[in-house]
TrEMBL record:
Name this polypeptide is given: Pimeloyl-ACP methyl ester carboxylesterase
The AB hydrolase-1 domain, residue ranges: 21-126, 168-243
Record-linked Pfam families: Abhydrolase_1 (PF00561)
Coiled coil location: none
Domain of life: Bacteria
UniProt xrefs under Gene3D superfamilies: alpha/beta hydrolase
Length: 275
């Protein structure tokens, strides 16, 4: 499958397939490669756009810019403009879930539907609070600190090869990026605004997720008016990697429901159609 990689500002994007734009946003210190199991599954029907947020993965990491939730949301807007996207379905993992919530609340006209995976309305779970992360970076260095979080992120059935893949991916994020990103994530709070998210929303969480425990997903699903909660068994913080067949089925079902509500326009974007 052909994957086109391009740099937009400080953001590297990986694009495959054609059709309705399906934009995947990864989490704290992770990368676009955490969506690797979704590429083939969805590129036959959608324009799959996987983002390496600035400072993460293979994206640039200049020291003169911000690595905050708001800045990342602006980076997504720049991707929309560069790729001539009017509207898209956004899929956010963990910190990426916070980023896409922020984007949706700021630019509701640009979001057709929302998918929140291992996400919260406020910070992360108690196991990964800002003080713990910053202390670990100070004591162990950012690579070891990030890899320690990864070790706790997977469910019991995850193979060692999968954990090692994730350990290598998170090692790419430098300390100054991680520090600013985790502080901004800790400060983010959408609880009072969840009712303003007016698009169909799928909330997904693994039963063994201790990074963003299932209770956080319940808060999201209860707060967002048009939402659906799916809990995936035998998965931790990364159900799309740990149980890809189950995750892809859940996402595909949700997208089919969205397809019945939205139709293509004659232009480059999409138009909403009430059925």
């Amino acid at each position: 499958m052909h994957i086109e990689t391009k740099t937009i500002g400080d953001t590297v994007v990986h694009v495959s397939g054609a059709g309705l734009p399906l934009v995947f946003v990864h989490g704290f210190t992770t990368t676009a490669q955490f969506w690797r199991e979704q590429i083939e599954a969805f590129s036959s029907r959608y324009r799959v756009i996987r983002i390496d947020l600035p400072g993460h993965g293979v994206s640039p990491r200049p020291e003169g810019r911000s690595y905050t939730i708001a800045a990342f949301a602006n980076d997504i807007l720049a991707v929309y403009r560069a790729l001539e996207i009017d509207e898209a379905i956004l899929v956010g993992l963990s910190m990426g879930g916070t980023v896409v919530q922020t984007f949706t609340l700021s630019h509701p006209e640009r979001v057709l539907a929302l998918v929140l995976v291992g996400a919260t309305p406020h910070g992360l779970g108690a196991d990964v609070n800002v003080d713990n992360v910053l202390k670990a970076i100070d004591d162990l260095g950012v690579v070891q600190a990030s890899q320690n979080v990864i070790e706790r992120s997977f469910g019991r059935t995850a193979g060692r090869d999968l954990v090692e893949f994730a350990r290598q991916e998170v090692a790419q994020t430098p300390a100054f990026v991680a520090r600013e990103a985790i502080a901004s994530l800790n400060a983010s709070d959408s609880r009072a605004n969840l009712h303003d998210i007016g698009v169909p929303t799928l909330v997904v969480v693994g039963t063994e997720d201790i990074i963003t425990p299932p209770g956080e997903s319940v808060v999201l699903a209860e707060g967002i008016p048009e939402s659906r909660l799916e809990v995936i068994a035998d998965a931790g913080h990364f159900p799309m990697l740990e149980q890809p067949r189950v995750f892809n089925h859940v996402l595909e079902s949700f997208l089919k429901d969205c397809d019945s509500r939205f139709s293509r326009s004659s232009g480059t974007g999409l138009s909403r159609q009430i059925v």
